[in-house]
Amino acid sequence: MEKKFKINYPNSEKIYLRGTIHPDLRVGMRKINQLPTVDKSGARRENPPIIVYDTSGPYSDPDVVIDLNKGLDKLRLPWVEGREHTQLYYAKKGVITPEMEYVAIRENMNCKELGIDTYITPEFVREEIANGRAVIPANHRHPESEPMIIGTKFLVKINTNIGNSALGSDIEEEVEKAIWSCKWGGDTIMDLSTGKNIKETREWILRNSPVPVGTVPIYQAFEKVNGKVEELNWEVFKETLIEQCEQGVDYFTIHCGIRLKNIHLADSRLTGIVSRGGSIISKWCQIHNEESFLYAHFDDICDLCRRYDVALSLGDGLRPGSVHDANDAAQFAELDTMGELVERAWAKDVQVFIEGPGHVPLHKIRENMERQIEKCHGAPFYTLGPIVTDIAPAYDHITSAVGASVIGWLGTAMLCYVTPMEHLGLPDKNDVRTGVVTYKIAAHAADLAKGHPGAMVRDNALSKARYEFRWKDQFNLSLDPEKAEEYYRKSNNTDARFCTMCGPNFCAMRISQTLNDDCQL
Amino acid sequence: MEKKFKINYPNSEKIYLRGTIHPDLRVGMRKINQLPTVDKSGARRENPPIIVYDTSGPYSDPDVVIDLNKGLDKLRLPWVEGREHTQLYYAKKGVITPEMEYVAIRENMNCKELGIDTYITPEFVREEIANGRAVIPANHRHPESEPMIIGTKFLVKINTNIGNSALGSDIEEEVEKAIWSCKWGGDTIMDLSTGKNIKETREWILRNSPVPVGTVPIYQAFEKVNGKVEELNWEVFKETLIEQCEQGVDYFTIHCGIRLKNIHLADSRLTGIVSRGGSIISKWCQIHNEESFLYAHFDDICDLCRRYDVALSLGDGLRPGSVHDANDAAQFAELDTMGELVERAWAKDVQVFIEGPGHVPLHKIRENMERQIEKCHGAPFYTLGPIVTDIAPAYDHITSAVGASVIGWLGTAMLCYVTPMEHLGLPDKNDVRTGVVTYKIAAHAADLAKGHPGAMVRDNALSKARYEFRWKDQFNLSLDPEKAEEYYRKSNNTDARFCTMCGPNFCAMRISQTLNDDCQL
Question: Is the pLDDT score of A47 beyond 50?
Fold first, then answer.
C-alpha cells in the first residue's frame, strides 16, 4: 500500500526551507536538478537547480513512511494546540503565525537567492490576511495540512473536485484521487461526495491530505433528510457543520447569498440554476416562502467557523450555466448579498472568499472581476473556469482554461479545475490528471501575467534547456514530465541535437546556434 | 478508397445556399437537425435546425463521388477562366466577385432568417478587401477550393499544418490528414513538407483540398540546393515560386521581413531564432553579408503573386521562441519592415497578411495586436498561438489556445493551430484532431467576444439541449460529437433525465426545472 502512494518526480529532490521568525518551520519544496550545458569544445557549464512550489507533501519525501491507516504526520499540531482564534484574528492583532511565515517562504520559492526582488514577506502575508484580501484555510483539526494562501497578490491556486456520487467510485479510489491531485499540483481538494459513506470517505481524505480540504455541507445535510428538500432545516445543517468542523474540513462552500426576493431573477434564463446547492436552497425558499436558513443563520455559521478557523467560501448558487446567462441580474444580485456577508464574516474574524462563475464569454470576464472586487471589498475570488464557449463538451477543460487564465490574470486567487468529463460524467484518474495540469497552466499563465516574483524562472530554465537540446531537462522542468517524454518517444528520436518536428536539416534552433559562429552550418 | 474519405456529421444535412448577385453560387453549409422538446404533459415543441459554417467541402455531400485520383470538382473554374487580376484589384475597382458574395453568404450563416442583425454583405466584403483589412486566398489555379475570407471583421479562421519531414509520414497519410483537418473545421491547410516528394505530395493535397493551401516555398528551395544555405539564391527561389503558383498554392509564407541590420538583435535572446525559414535566411544574410534575396526581390515576388492571385503571408522569421523573448527588439524591427512591405504589396494589388508569434505571456499580447495594426496598416494578422507559458510541453495546444483566444478577440484574423506534439515531434491523426478542435474553441471564443453576428446561436442551442437533457442534441451540436458521446457513455448512463455528474437526486438542472412548478420535486 505504501509504495503505491509514493510520489516521484524525475531528477528532483525534496528539500525543506527553514523559518526565521519560527525557526522550527520546515517548508517542503521540490528541487529540480539540471544537466550541464556542453558546448562544441566539450566544455561543461553547470545549470542551477530550479526550486519550485510543491503540493505533494510527505508523499514525495523518500524518508517518510506512508500508512494510509495512520494518516500523515500532524505537522501543525504544536502550532494549533490551545489555539482559540482564526488567522484573521491574529493578523489583525499584528501576530505573524507559523502558518503566515510558512506561506511566505513557500510563495517566494528562492527569489532571494536568485537576486529577484520580492514583496512577499511574513509581514506582507499578515497584512493581506488582516485586510481580508487573503485567506489561509487551515482548520485547527486538520493539522496534517501544509499551510497555503489564497489571495490576489500570491500565486494563483487551483482546486480539484473529487468525491463519489450515487453512480460511482469507492473510498480508496477517492483517497487515491486526492493524492493524485497533489502529485500534479492541486492546491486544495474539495470532497463533493454525495453517495454512501460520506463521513468515512471524508475522514480518510482528511487524514491523508497535505492540502486543505473543502466541502459543500448541504450535500451531506441533504442526504440526512433523504433528499427531501422541504425537510432541510437549520438544525440538520448545524449538526452537519459541527461534524465536519470536528473532522477538520478547512473550508465550507455555503450558498448563503441566495435571497428569496432574487430567485425569480433566474426565471428568464436559458439554463436556470445549475448549482446543486443553489437549486436545493432556491427550492427550499420557494417551498417555505421564507429566507433560507443559511442566510438567516449566517452569524451562527460564522460563530462555528471561528471556533475551528474554518474559512467560508460563499457559494454562487445563482451562477450562470451558459454563456447566454452570464453577468445577468440573478448572478449580480447574489454577488451583492455576498458583499454584505463578507463584512459580517470579517466582523467575527472569520476568513472568507467568494465563489464565481462558471460560464462567461471572454468580453464579459473583466466585469465579473471588477464587480467582485468592488462589491466584496477585496475578498479573494474563487472561480470555476469560466468556460468561454458552450459548444465543446469533452473539451471543457480547455474552454474553461481560457477563461481561468484571463480571470486569474485579472486577480482571481483560486481556480476550480474542470476536467474533460465536465457536463458528461465523473472524471477518472486520467481525467483528473488532465484537469489538474490544464489548470496549473492557467494559474501559471496568470502568475506570469501578474508578474509574480520568480514565476518566470521555470519558463526560462525550460526554454534554455529546449534551445540547448537538453531534452531530459525539458521534460523534468515541465508540468507533466511523463507525458512530455512519452510524446517525444513516439517520434522515435533519442536525444538528438535537432528538433524532432523539423528533422535534422531544417532545425531552426540548430541553424540559429550557428549564427555568428563561423558562417557555416 | 471513396468511402474512407467521406465525412459524416451526426443528424446533419449538407445544404447549399444560393447567391443573389451571382445566382449560380452554391454555398455549402451544414444543417444540424434537433429533436423536439417534450414537456411533462408529453407535448412536443420543435427545435429549429442550426445552420453552421462548414469546411468539409464535397466530402460531406452524400451525392458527390470522391475519387482522390481525379480530385474534387473545380467549382471556381467558370469564375477564374480568363481572369487576370487579384481579388484586391477587383475590390478596388468596385467589382463584387463571385468569391466575395460566396464568403458573405458563408460568414452570415443564416442570420437574416433568424432575425439577427448583420453587417456582412457582399459590398462590405468588397470594402474590407479593397482597404486591405481582409484577404481571400484563392489562386486561379486552385479552382477546387471554396472561397473563405481572412479579416478581423469576419469569423476567426484556423490553419492546420501538415506535411512530412525527413523523419516520417507518406503522401496518402498527408492527404488523409488534410481531409481530416477539413472534417474538424480547419479553414486552411499549410503543407510544410520538407522530405522527399514535396511536389507530388502538394499536388495530391491541392487537387483534393476544398480549403486554401499555403506553403513556405523556401523549404522546397532549400531542398533543391541540398540543404546548403549559402547556395540559395533568387533564381532557385523564383523557379520554386513559379512551380508552386502553377500548381495552385493559395498563399505563400515568405520571410522577407528579415533585414541584415536586424539579425544581431536576436543575439541577446534566450532562444535565438526559432523559425525555420527565419534561421535559413538569417544565416544566408550573414554568409553573404547582404540583404536577403527575399527582401531585395520583393517586388518581383509580388509580380508573380499578382499573376495567379496568390496571397502573401509575411513570415515572422524573428518571432520569439520563448515567453522570455516576447515583444523584443528583433521581433518588432521585423514587424516594422513588414509594414513597409505591406504597402508595396498593395501597390501591386497583391493580397497580404502578416504572421505573428509564437510565445507571448498574457500581459504582452495586446501590444502585439495594437502594434501590428498600426505598423501594418490594418492588414490581417495571422498568429501561431501564442503560447502563454513554456512549462507545459505535451499540453501546448492548451498553453497556446489561451493566447490564441485572447489575440483572436483583440482582432487577429487567423490562428495557426498547435497540437499536443508541439516541441516534441510530428502530430499523428489524433493529435491533428485535438489541435483543430482546440483551435476551433479559441476561434469561436474570440467570435463570441467580438460579437460576430449569429456566433452565439450554436452555444444557445447546445445550452438549451443540455438543460432539457436532450443528450443527443448536445452531442450533435458540439465541435466533436463523437468524443462528447464517447465520454458520456463512459459513465454508463443512457439518456437519463439527470446530469451524469451529480446523479439523480443531486441534479441541479432537474431541481431547477421544478422551480415555480408545484413546489414539489
Answer: yes
Amino acid letter, A2: E
Q: CA nearest A218: which of A293, A123, A322, A120?
A: A293
Residue type (1 letter), B70: K
Separation between Cα atoms, residue B487 and residue B509, nearest integer Å: 20
What mean pLDDT do residues B431-449 have?
98
Query: What would the pLDDT profile of A450-507 be if each residue is shown by its tens digit?
Result: 999 999 999 999 999 999 999 999 999 999 999 999 999 987 665 566 655 566 666 7
ipTM of the complex: 0.96
Is residue A323 within 8 angstroms of chain B, CB to CB? Answer: yes
CA B389, CA A193: separation in Å to the nearest integer? 34
Spacing of C-alpha A296 from chain mean position:
30
Rounded CA separation B319/A259 (Å): 53
The per-residue pLDDT for B521 is 37
Subunit contact A168:B491, Cβ cutoff 8 A: yes
Residues of A in contact with B411 (CB under 8 A): none
Which of B399, B437, B515 is facing A395, going by the closest CB pair? B437
Residue B187, CA distances (Å) to B53, B146, B148 in order: 10, 10, 8
Q: How many residues does chain B have?
A: 521
Three-state DSSP state, A42: coil
Secondary element (H or E) of residue B188:
strand B188-191
Nearest chain B Cα distance for residue A226, angstroms = 9
What's the pTM value of the predicted model, to 2 decimals? 0.96
Residue B170 has pLDDT above 80, yes or no: no
B40 compared with A400, residue with greater pLDDT: A400
Q: What pLDDT is attached to residue A170?
A: 72
Q: Are A474 and A466 in contact (CB under 8 A)?
A: yes
Among the partner-chain residues A279, A323, A445, the one whose CB lies closest to the CB of B508 is: A279
Taking the C-alpha atoms of residue A408 and residue A442, their distance in angstroms, rounded to an integer, is: 8
Say which residue the cell 512519452 belongs to.
A486
Contact A500 B424 (CB under 8 A): yes
CB atoms closer than 10 angstroms to residue B367: 13
Min Cα distance B75 → chain A (Å) is 31
In chain A, residues 21-50 whose CB comes closer than 8 Å to chain B: none
- Let me know the angle formed at the C-alpha of B385 by B379 and B391, rounded to the nearest 5 degrees: 150
Dmax (CA) for chain B in angstroms is 84
